[in-house]
Amino acid sequence: MKAGGEELSGESGGRAAFRQKTAEIVVTAVFLLLGAIVIFDSVRLGIGWGDEGPQPGYFPFYIALIICLSSLVNLVRALLIPPQKNNAFVEIGQLKLVLAVLVPTSIYTALIGWLGIYVASILFVGFFMRWLGRYAWWKVLAVSVANSVVFFLIFEIWFSIPLPKGPIEALLGLN
Amino acid sequence: MDEIQALMQGFEVALSYRNLALMFVGVILGVIIGVLPGLGGANGVAILLPLTFAMAQTPGGTTSAIILLSCIYWGALFGGAITSILFNIPGEPWSVATTFDGYPLAQKGRAGEALTAAFTSSFVGALVAVIVITFLSPIVARFALEFGPPEFFSVYLLTFCAFVGMSKEHAFKTLASMMLGFALAAVGTDPVTGTLRLTFGSTHMLAGFDFLIAVIGLFGIGEILLTLEEGLAFKGASAKINFGVVVQTWKELPKYWRTSIRSAAVGCFMGIVPGGATPASFMSYGVAMRFSKDGEKFGTGQVEGVVAPETAAHAAGTAALLPMLTLGVPGSPTAAVLLGGLLIWGLQPGPLLFVEQKDFVWGLIASMYLGNIAGLIVVLTCVPLFAAILRIPFSVIAPIIMVICAIGAYTVHNSIFDVWMMVVFGIAGYVFKKLSYPLAPMVLAIVLGDRAESSFRQAMLVSQGDMTIFFSNALVGSMTGLALFLLGWPLMSLGIARLRRTLT
Lengths: 175, 504
Prior knowledge:
The complex is a heterodimer of chains A (175) and B (504). With 175 residues, chain A is mostly helical. Chain A folds into 2 domains: 16-86; 92-172, no CATH class. Chain A has 6 helices and 4 strands, in the order βαββαβαααα. In chain A, a hairpin with a 2-residue loop joins β2 and β3. In chain A, α3 (92-115) packs antiparallel against α4 (117-131) and α4 runs antiparallel to α5 (137-158). Chain B is globular. The longest helix of chain B is centred in the N-terminal third of the chain and has 34 residues, at 111-144. Chain B has one domain. Chain B starts with a helix and ends with a helix. Chain B has 504 residues and is mainly alpha-helical. Chain B has 22 helices and 2 strands. In chain B, α5 (61-87) crosses α6 and α12 runs antiparallel to α13. Classes of the chains: A mainly alpha (175), B mainly alpha (504).
């Protein structure tokens, strides 16, 4: 899959990956689920009137009730979307671009814990520039390393806020 | 004139070299943040907030910290106009109306004029709002000193009902997203009894959801994903402002004084009422179109069409700090982040601030005058520089912005779990934005949830569960009544529209 590239920009009229209606229904379902979870825990904590006034579950219970009721209205409204107005929520080309950012971002977040934020950032920025921007390797290397060095100077040296570091910083004695 | 005297003392605080330098740093950072996609006033301030923790511990440091952060906000407000006019990309929701006439002007090669008009009217709008803050906020604060839990709860109620009544999104979507914010705020320790709620045994959930993480995810990551969909390249008009154009535009601007006054008034009013900046800019654009003698030419590139929304948006954005300072109720997401900052530095926003932290409050208000002057100077002189930032290819700037967001999320609590939460909020922000679930009420609910709940429960304790306490005197009754009116407004307007249709 070669998604992205500056030349792919602004592609329109592609096939829909999801339609508006599907997306609306999924989101209301998530809202209903979250509402149900909150109601469940509120009931456990007590939703009535205790010795110290309203019990801990009192306020969240009614909040969750409003979540569920308004989500039901939204669900009905979503179900009533006529087919001709059921536009694409996201087109396949767009979804590819979004995933092309979202997946590396998740990997990046996982790498932070393992390699530390500076090395992970070099890989992340480098990956983007090489894969989506197709820059020459020396440019990729220069920008991604410079970026991490600048952040290192700002956070560790200037503001003395320690960010997560990994084995490579330990090797360089930067901890 | 106590206010004038207090303000003069404020200027003494704000006019130190350190604070003046911070003002310029803040404004420049703010403009950059406002220009970059994915970074705006709210999440920009949220990301930089942890950097001020150390600063706030030094004597007089809280004032310096708030000056830095508020100047980032002014800078971001100015920066929004640059992207709207040159690139047709509104940096903030309230810059949308600026694109209507700003971008056509730029396409005609009159970008310099449009930018000068936008910056100058932003400045005028902010100035009017700061004057309003100077004289109105001590009165509001004095008034609010008498507030008890029922009054505070009715203020919160009014804030949230105003969102339902005035947002252009569907009322039930506003309600759902707002209540989700309240539910997220409820996670963690119960503010009254200390019981753990909704944590389901997870240690990560003990402290609850931090709204800073939500802001960085919802507005930062979500915005980048949306920008990405539109394509990776920005096509923009070139920006050149020289002194001649500035002077020429300034000569032309006074003839729009009527529009300026109207827009500033609309902006101040809508800014104090929460959630107002975006409707304010649209409303004042619409009003200007109706009253201007060139009304039918609006949208084709009229300077007046830039003046109106910019004045209103900046006035509203500034006036949003009035309820934040005096009542502890922020009027916009960025004001909410600033409020979060105050809490972290150990200051209690609300009426007592005007009694106990005079130097802080008046230093901040004085810095609003100076910061906006600094902002005007910076943007008028450096526009080409800032526009050049937008020409950095997206495949370079996007990952760097993501890294900045990740660092910002991490530094809030030094937790990698927060970075994951940021990604989750980012996806939510993307989906919500596409399905027009409004984000601002959700963020405000996460910030205010605990305090709204506490004041509600304290009021209930006082009245022994009797809801009529929210109507027990004229003040609290009128606020609750107005809140309920705003809450019911979408239904009423629907009914009126239907009635009108059946009558005609």
